[in-house]
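Re: [help] complex structure
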Amino acid sequence: SQQGEEDPQALSIQEGENATMNCSYKTSINNLQWYRQNSGRGLVHLILIRSNEREKHSGRLRVTLDTSKKSSSLLITASRAADTASYFCATQETSGSRLTFGEGTQLTVNP
Amino acid sequence: NAGVMQNPRHLVRRRGQEARLRCSPMKGHSHVYWYRQLPEEGLKFMVYLQKENIIDESGMPKERFSAEFPKEGPSILRIQQVVRGDSAAYFCASSPQAQEGYTFGSGTRLTVV
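Output below.
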């Protein structure tokens, strides 16, 4: 079954606006990670948040984690056209090591 | 630090041929993972290996697919007797520890004609 599920599937905003993407999951996790993928390229690791953390920042990125609701959000502030990409959440369960990815959110930032 | 290196970048095979995909992890990374991605979809886990050991192959099809990570040399994902449905992007990733973020390669795009 799908572990990480992103919402929305697609998001289109204007440059300078904030973009928020959500991720829900089903099982207990050790950590949750967000990745970015430009079209036709490999994934780039953005941020990792552990199950005992509630919020984490990295530059223009802010990630929150609510383990009681089994959900996470990724906020990109002051978006740029170069932020256009697919964004995936991925979970690592407590018992294992493999990452389970969601289907992704396609973000388009219009100049 | 060259990152995770995958080759070839593009591979075309006729139905029934064998495909060999190679992955050299980042220096110092002993955990290697293979994922498959179909167009417009997320990544599907295939196999997790450490040097000379398969740790988790629960995502690998039972037939035609195999993976190895020898003591010396790159990790190899091997697909025998390829079919059109094997056409996809295959990504390799590595990590230094089991519960850490992954570094991904640029992928191998396999096309079966």
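Chain A has a mean pLDDT of 91.
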